[in-house]
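Example record

The entry below shows one chain as it appears in the dataset: sequence first, then structure tokens.
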Amino acid sequence: MTRAIPWLTSNSSNFPALSTALKEPNGLLAFGDDLSPQLIIQAYQRGIFPWFSDGDPVMWWSPDPRGIINIADIKINKTLKKVLKRNTYTVTLNNNFEHVIELCADAPFREEETWIVNPMLSAYKKLHQQGFAHSIEVWKNDQLVGGLYGVAINGYFSGESMFYKQSNASKVALVYLSQLLKSIDVAFIDCQMNNSFLASMGCIEVSREYFIAQQSIAKTIIPPGNFWQPRALNFI
């Protein structure tokens, strides 16, 4: 039996129940033509995120299972431990969001066409200006060599993408993000969908029901007012 996928517009942007998301492709919930910051925040509030290719309509997703990293269980291998101990890189928060997202869109390791298309770039830059999207930057000799960005709703952080130009740089960004969130008692990072790289860092798959329950807890954590201010981060 086929199921009709609803079409969301700027005039009608109520997301359907998560239980109506398709099993194949996993998590497809709705199509649309609206990618306003307001709708994106509404989506993240419910554990939904946009993901689509150039020329496609906006596609909204809520996969089941969901990929998350429990911060207490993040994996740091021997090589990464040495990199962190030696302070090989300098790490900052929200120092250059626009450059990070642009490099994520054009990451050299990406085998498939990027999903961080121009409408996504524009929308997430606006989210950053509004204080919802954040970046971790990894520097070496004043050159940006790695980083990641994502969206935060209170203590809930949903990672979007990362890049690296030097070995372990994206892993360093992820470790620093985990320590930053741990400092306000956040228990997990939402990775949306698992892959081999994330699995090597400790990403596991959990049910949508479990994810939503944990997301609800994270959203009750209110960071200090200066938590996301641009600054250098130190490894503890």
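Notes for this example: The chain is about 30% helix and 25% strand. The chain has a mean pLDDT of 94.
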